[in-house]
């Protein structure tokens, strides 16, 4: 490929459009639907602004030779180009830092386990220290400062190759830990098989970000071993911008799905039909179905993924207040008593339930939360089960 400038312009333009749509969907849903705008939402907005500025700097840099081979670039443009690249790196590190903290704040809201909270706090410290040190090392890499732009000035600069190797490797290591944490936190969730697969697929989208981060390490190796500054560094910048924007899109995926289903309601029924065909009846909890009355279904499945609890109630008949308090006919064969629900069970399940279901998962005094991604199974209390028995 002889010139990357056109690729830089159109790729950044597409990524900016997708990122802005994702962030607007997330912010709009949190403000107007949920009525709550948390720390993680604000950090995602900051990350989107930083990623957009980073992309704009890249596109402007193409006018100064970024993306072309060094032999074709006017040497008079290099000082201005280096200034733009130096400034753009600050926004790259800021975006990466904001996404990491946003995800960690989100994780802290879905788990209350002590060991999980400790690991989240440790990662907060690692992410903050790494982000701050990256910005400072990038800005003050040379003494005096102008030597980063004008190499002929007497002074000293750190080895750029070593800095990029260490920074990209550390970035990949922290991302691996960050995207693996939710899989550990939610491994004991009691979900239907298809919903658990869907939840893991959502978290696995972080693998796309990890792939971009790994490719960035390879491009840095090529940049160090085969010098061609304006050409090789353009490849690093492209992979960096893809990494940033993909991380934001992954963080906004739940909001994008909810908004899409709201705009295209017919897609909701299609998803529900698909999941009903995929999910076998054996995936439901075992209970005795000796009666076809409304009393024969001891659990209430609320479809919080699609935000349609009414249709779920029609699909899965549940016990009404009259059924519980009324006298059952002698001919009615009641189901076996369901197993008692242990309220002191896994705290992660309860935390995710409160996060994903703003009505049934909300405790007294807590603010409402938004609808989420999974089917959450709500059991009746032991008292109600005892009355049935």
> Percent range for helical residues?
55-70%
Which strand order do you get reading across the main beta sheet?
A: 1-2
Give the SSE string.
HHHHEEHHHHHHEHHHEH
Total count of domains: 2
Q: Structural class of the secondary elements?
A: mainly alpha
CATH architecture of the largest domain: Up-down Bundle
GO cellular component, one term: membrane
Domain Rhodopsin: 26-259
Transmembrane segments: 6-25, 37-60, 84-106, 118-137, 162-185, 197-224
Keywords: Membrane, Transmembrane, Transmembrane helix
Describe this structure in words.
The relative contact order is 0.12. It is built from 14 helices and four strands. The chain is mainly alpha-helical. The strands form two sheets. Strands 1-2 form a two-stranded antiparallel sheet. A two-stranded antiparallel ribbon has the order 3-4. The protein is globular. It folds into two domains: 5-254, Rhopdopsin 7-helix transmembrane proteins (Up-down Bundle), CATH 1.20.1070; 264-388, no CATH class. The model is unreliable at 274-334, 341-349 and 351-387 (pLDDT under 50). 63% of the residues lie in helices and 3% in strands. Its main location: membrane. It is a multi-pass membrane protein.
